[in-house]
Automatic annotation (TrEMBL):
Keywords: Cytoplasm, Signal. Residues 1-19 form the signal peptide. The keyword Cytoplasm applies. This is OTU deubiquitinase with linear linkage specificity like. The lineage of its organism: Eukaryota, Metazoa, Chordata, Craniata, Vertebrata. It is found in: Cytoplasm. The keyword Nucleotide-binding does not apply. One of its GO terms (cellular component) is cytoplasm.
Amino acid sequence: MLSMSFLVAVFWYCRRLYSFLAQLLKRWSNYLQRKLIRNLSVLTEVDLLGYSAREWKGETKHAKHMREAYEELFWSCHIKYLRQVRRDNYCVLRAVLFQIFSQGIPFPSWMKERDILKLPEKLLYSQGCNWIQQYSFGPERYTGPNAFGKLRKCMETLKTNWTEISATKDHEARGNMCNTLFSDESKEHKLYEAIKFIMLYEVVEAYEQIKNREEATHNLFSLLLARDSSSDPLSFMMNRLNSIGDSICLDQVELFLLGYLLEVKIRVYRLHRFNTEEFQVNYPEEYRREWNEISLLTEDDRYYHIPLFRT
Ligand SMILES: *[C@@H]1O[C@H](CO)[C@@H](O)[C@H](O)[C@H]1NC(C)=O
Ligand SMILES: *[C@@H]1O[C@H](CO)[C@@H](O)[C@H](O)[C@H]1NC(C)=O
């Protein structure tokens, strides 16, 4: 009789312990989710047509147009899923870099020959661009004596992260590294600032070449420098780059430059241009055959998502 009630007591304690542990585990996993998953800046894939139906309800002309454009992507372009990318002013840089990293695309050929860590020094000392001290870092708006040191840090982060991720051959391991990287804003922003700085570097180089009438540069540079806002490298930095990520995002010409310097063909499906010749655009338009290709999808040339193809 005694042993029976002893067993019951033990059983009862075990159940208490079990439900206590279960609760602990649940709290712990919620905590982990908040820590890791909720901050993902590139979400996991969702069904394309489901997304379109949720986003574009109603019978307005624009909503119908968008739904039709999504159907076209689904049926004719074999895009079945999309990954949503956080909507801020770094959006397109994020969508591009995320794909480069997650597909394990290596450094462009010129970055293998030239160490990107040296670029800030090169502009400052060899090219005499002491105005790069006025570089500011997107939403951080940092301008101060240490801009140069901060730039070096950004370049270092880009180089080490890109090297490490592209050397990881296992698809799943690479995906996990990307999820870690793309859920921490401070790390992400360093990468984007590094890319922005490389854009500046390219513009400085091209500007010098055009001035000295050396070899012909890619015609995207003449387009870029023809704008009032960026008729020379300094004004490009002050009027455009310093605000990218903060109050403005890359425009079309800058997207050409991005594809060119990363040596990737960026194919963009522009849904608001559905039924026109500008529905599918490649950035840049001229590309070499050996370049890797990535794809983006946009509804407004401002925010971008990542389309996924399946047959
Ligand atoms: C995720 O965001 C929350 C607040 O929005 C923050 O407290 C937490 O540290 C972030 N986690 C990571 C891994 O960045
Ligand atoms: C990314 O770079 C930072 C800074 O250099 C480094 O601490 C971090 O471990 C790197 N992460 C990966 C996945 O390479």
